[in-house]
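Fig. S4 source data, part A: sequence.
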Amino acid sequence: MADMTNTRLELCNMIRMEAEHVSDTGFPLDVFPQAVQSVILDMDRYENYKTEFIATAMLSAVSAALGGTYRIRIKGEWQSNAALYIILVGRPGLGKTPPLEAAYRPIRKHDYALFKAYESELEVWKAAGENGKKPVLRRTVVSDFTPESLLLTHNNNPRSVVILVDEIMGMFNSANRYTNGQLIEQLLTAWSGGALDVTRVSNTIPVHIEQPCINIIGTTQTKRVHELLTKGFEENGLLDRILFVLPKSREVPKWTDWDDGGEDRASMAAARWEQILGKVLALDYDTGEEERMPHVLSMDREAREYFFSWWNRKVECINRIEDDAQVESREMKHPAQVARLALLMQVLRYAIDESHLQSVDTASVKAAIRLNGYFEDSYRRIRSFVAEDMCEEPPKVLLSLLPDTFDTKTAIATGREQQNVSERTVMNYLRELCRSGLLRKSKAGHYEKIIYDKSGKFNMTDNEPSPPDCNG
């Protein structure tokens, strides 16, 4: 009976995705469990959310709810939690914040329950003459904080904290300006799995977080996203750790007054999501001899073989690159990103009773690879989108005069004949175009244009962004 119900739901979801033109978004909604797809589609329809925003915000919420209770073994002793750094990008009014708040509403509700419990404990402590250990406030979501208070909050809630900021560029800029990069260093260390320490002036006892789990999710406008590329976040490695969502369509969804009980359907979708996330929040640490220990899930044999094969194909392509400057440091983060996404997909499937939490299987790994592909496509489109502001006009003129694929000899001849510039100047132009994201070197002496138009369509000379055997 359960299989028949799931089959009917799958068919219904397929019909709805086709009717709503979900495939046009490029977002792989079909990799989500059927029950989660149904919730997302209801929220799309009755709340006017964009699929890409609500689905990604849900992944972030699952990661925050799971926290450090479960980890995934990537290879050998290399393990990771499921923490994600995410930025939702879009023009003003595109609807970035409402789906983010909807995805996190169950966690905010959980935080409020913790706050009420803290109030009660504090009253009891005061009534007892302030004897004994003073109660501490535990919470998951933080928005306005200092680097020190972030770590103290995490110390009080070792499971996880999530930085949830509406306009996130303000936070990043303030972090660089007022804290000498301390917050950025903490975020880089936490993402890589390093321990964090803080010593308060008022307390000589340092706070030590051995296995931090910090999620980040926020929004920004397309006109501000270039700040990430121009203010040092690429050089320090933070940019490589961020997953981006940039919808292909810039159209603001129109409001529709549904006559089929839209408000009730929206409420039911929210309730189903709260139930799913509640099951994740109910997961707990393993009980060790001295302290709580996270469960560590390995990929099963088939999943591990698929994961290794996917990454080794990428390694082969990376090893063929002759110029070290052309090796993208961002790509080296893909194994960790995919592993984290695979763990989240396994947990989501467990939360709707579709799978287990004994290991991570092939379905979750395949889903993670496709999700990572979408996030990387968004990143490439963002790079190309902001390249217009980052690149000087003469190199762009040269690019407009060249075919979609060309070699160095052709570029030099075109520059000399059409722009009356030297070979050295042409080579400088090519380097700037590659740095800006308008061009990429396919092999020694050969280049491919990266094309992005304002309608949201993206391609690289109408081919995949890498050779076929380099894609997962």
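Fig. S4 source data, part B ends here. The chain is about 50% helix and 15% strand.
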